[in-house]
Design brief:
Blueprint (H helix, E strand, L loop, with lengths): L1 H19 L9 E5 L2 E4 H10 L9 H23 L6 H4 L8 H21 L7 H10 L5 E2 L2 E9 L2 H12 L5 H9 L10 E6 L5 H9 L9 E3 L2 E11 L2 E2 L2 H31 L2 E3 L16
Antiparallel strand pairs: 1-2, 1-9, 3-8, 4-5, 4-7, 6-7
Helix pairs in contact: 2-5, 3-5, 3-10, 6-10
Length: 297
């Protein structure tokens, strides 16, 4: 009997000890390696944390592009270091308050990537006046604008009030419209005298657009009912279909061309890094189903 009780007691103690054992540690799998330096799932999580995103809330397509960016950042940083380039002490000051070691490492990579990219492209990225003019000539459709009108309105909640105001406006000087808009209009632009700005066809509700575009400059509309209330419109300026002049768009053209050039040089730098270093990606270890992008095809 004593032997039986002892056996039961031993079994009970064993089972209790088994319950209190710490759970098996989840393996932090390698997702890629570059020149024998291994990057793991936890590094990707830290990269996503740095972007203030929640991994579990992102779709596989988004996570795939984030992973691509993480890998590209890592391999360009490794290439930069192999070329003797490093982060300046000034840049490191930004990270002094970061206590999380993994996040700090990821941020260092991000700074190194941006600094190295800027260094490698700054002498190559410039836009000439001739390039701007050529783009303007070959992309005229981007700079064409249709007929537009500058519209003022008074918006009130009742038809009777709108009819009363319209009657008053017809007897008043033109500048009275703005004063009444400031006093009576319930629309946001009332404080600006009713100035709604410029509109092209297709930018206003159809029932309002038809009325507005039929008006002559300075002419008052009849009362127009909408889901917002009752409107009175006045057109103060009309512009015909036109091509925006180069001087009005050259800054935006230059910014667009600079972005295109920098993007092309960035892709070139990534390819140089890939061709110069040994690397391997373990797609099967990613914590989501990887979806190839166009550049991976």
């Amino acid at each position: 009997m004593k032997k039986i009780l002892l056996s039961i007691l031993t079994l009970f103690i064993f089972l209790q000890c088994s319950k209190t054992e710490s759970p098996q540690k989840i393996e932090d799998k390698a997702i890629f390696e570059i020149e024998n330096e291994i990057f793991r799932q936890s590094d990707l999580r830290s990269y996503i944390d740095m972007m203030r995103l929640e991994l579990s809330e992102q779709k596989p397509l988004i996570l795939s592009r984030i992973f691509d960016r993480f890998f590209e950042t890592a391999i360009v940083c490794k290439y930069a270091l192999s070329q003797g380039y490093n982060i300046s002490g000034e840049s490191l000051k930004e990270l002094e308050e970061e206590k999380n070691e993994k996040i700090r490492r990821i941020k260092e990579m991000d700074i190194l990537y941006e600094n190295f990219l800027m260094e490698m492209t700054k002498s190559k990225v410039s836009i000439s006046k001739e390039e701007i003019e050529e783009y303007y000539k070959t992309h005229e459709e981007e700079f064409k604008r249709g007929e537009s009108v500058r519209v003022y309105q008074i918006l009130v909640p009742s038809e009777s009030e709108a009819l009363e105001i319209l009657s008053l406006l017809k007897k008043s000087p033109p500048q009275q419209f703005e004063q009444i808009a400031k006093e009576k209009s319930i629309s946001p632009e009332g404080s600006r005298g009713g100035d709604m700005g410029y509109f092209q066809r297709g930018e206003l509700p159809l029932e309002i657009e038809d009325v507005v575009f039929s008006l002559k400059v300075g002419e008052l509309s009849p009362v127009v009912k909408s889901s917002f209330g009752y409107h009175i419109f006045k057109v103060v300026e009309k512009k015909g279909a036109r091509l925006l002049p180069l001087k009005d768009v050259e800054k935006s053209i230059a910014e667009n061309l600079l972005y295109q050039k920098r993007d092309a040089l960035e892709k070139e730098l990534i390819n140089t890094a890939k061709n110069s270093l040994k690397w391997k990606i373990y797609f099967e270890n990613l914590p989501f189903n990887y979806i190839k992008g166009e550049e991976n095809e």
